[in-house]
Amino acid sequence: MGPFGLMHGLVDALKVAPGVLHLRRASAERNFASNVRSNLFRGVFATAQAALASAPPTRPLSYDNEGSANLYLERLQIDDYDYPSMFWLKQSFDEGMTSLVDVGGSIGIKYFAFGEFMSYPSNLLWRVIDMPAVAERGREFAASRGAPAALQFSGDIADADGVDIIYASGVLQYLPQTLAEIVAGLKRRPRRIIVNTAAIHPSKSFFTLNSIGTAFCAYRVQSRDEFVAAVTAQGYTLRHEWRNIGKPLRLPFEPGHSLEDYAGFCFDAAS
User: Domain for residue 131, yes or no?
Assistant: First the structure.
């Protein structure tokens, strides 16, 4: 082993030395508790309740607050990892689907961002379902931009009933119910489900605690096979899946639970 290899070996050994590891964990905890700008994660838990019980007392324990409602006012943009879901949305519109529920759609981010690059059906219904505080901020924001009546907001997941498409981007990890449980509770289920930026692990299901800067949230990570099996058990077939390359989930001190990429899926109702 050369001198550089020896040096790297010593550095790696120091990182996991008990005293150094304790200091690193304490520093990470302070950063997590005081975070106001970053998207941070901490810990591995069996339940959402256990994750929330571990939260520092410095922030609310939910997105349902004014600070969180204002997080995305400046993010009406398309990210690189949005394009697969945009493809399936356009495909859906081309196939005659005209009603959509955007679960966790905040203030209508995707409605405004995608509308710059695709034509919507003239009879479109785009209903955003989010936390009540966020839905109210969305109504105000949409009105300020002169958005058409096609864009609606709700704080009730029951309003996902009867639409052609459920679209869920970056939200499933925050919901108290899984996607399969939401679909199971609908009287009239969608023809298509499009999922993007979902926290999907190759083999493990667990919760972690997420600091979004304005709040702490329980954060669900599902194993790929468990997730797909639960949705297909509701009468759907997996049409397509993709990786959101370049969007990782870094869980400090838990490399086996970290994600290299998030994931996306398109499911169609079985005929």
Answer: yes
In a domain, 79, yes or no: yes
Four-CA torsion 232, 234, 236, 241, nearest 10 degrees: -40
Q: In the sheet where 165-169 sits, what is the strand order?
A: 151-154, 125-129, 99-103, 165-169, 192-198, 262-269, 236-244
pLDDT at residue 11 tops 50? no
Q: Hey, is 92 helix, strand or coil? A: helix
| pLDDT at residue 37, rounded to an integer | 82
> Which tens digits make up the pLDDT trace of 68-110?
656 655 667 888 999 999 999 999 999 999 999 999 999 999 9
Is residue 22 one of the residues assigned to a domain?
no
Look up residue 246 and give its amino acid.
Answer: G
> Domain residues for 62?
35-269
- CATH at 107: 3.40.50.150
Phi, psi (deg, nearest 5) at residue 228: -65, -45
Distance of CA 218 to the CA centre of its chain: 12
Domain tally for the chain? 1
4 belongs to a structural domain: no
Instruction: Choose among 170, 266, 254: nearest CA to 206.
Output: 254
Q: Are 113 and 128 in contact (CB under 8 A)?
A: no
